């Protein structure tokens, strides 16, 4: 599942926002806790708590912060055998130059690939996944407006 948007914020601003995993609990839908457990260079491990009470799940995500000059990327994946929620979870945020190469805008691409361990979670996700992806991207856009001002 994917979402693409042109935003009135620079690729660097959006990269910094997405890379700040420790603050996700403040604005990401269905995320009630986010904490960076460790960081080695451009790789960090973070624990996230997601869901709706009383159905809350924890998982550890390994986040790779990639920032070459021409394109910023933040791939992440759930890791560890004790991840009860996902068999597989990978997300990828990409931030490229805006239309006509404008540096005060960017093209944001978000994609997510996953498989739940629970058949119930899988059925529910199938019903709402497109809306979930849109709400996630909208939450980051709203957070950018809060931090950086209107587009």
Automatic annotation (TrEMBL):
Positions of the Coenzyme Q-binding protein COQ10 START domain: 8-141
Gene3D superfamilies: 3.30.530.20
GO function terms (MF aspect): ubiquinone binding
SUPFAM superfamilies tied to this protein: Bet v1-like
CDD domains in UniProt: COQ10p_like (cd07813)
GO cellular component terms given for this protein: mitochondrion
Function: Required for the function of coenzyme Q in the respiratory chain. May serve as a chaperone or may be involved in the transport of Q6 from its site of synthesis to the catalytic sites of the respiratory complexes.
Protein name: CQ10A protein
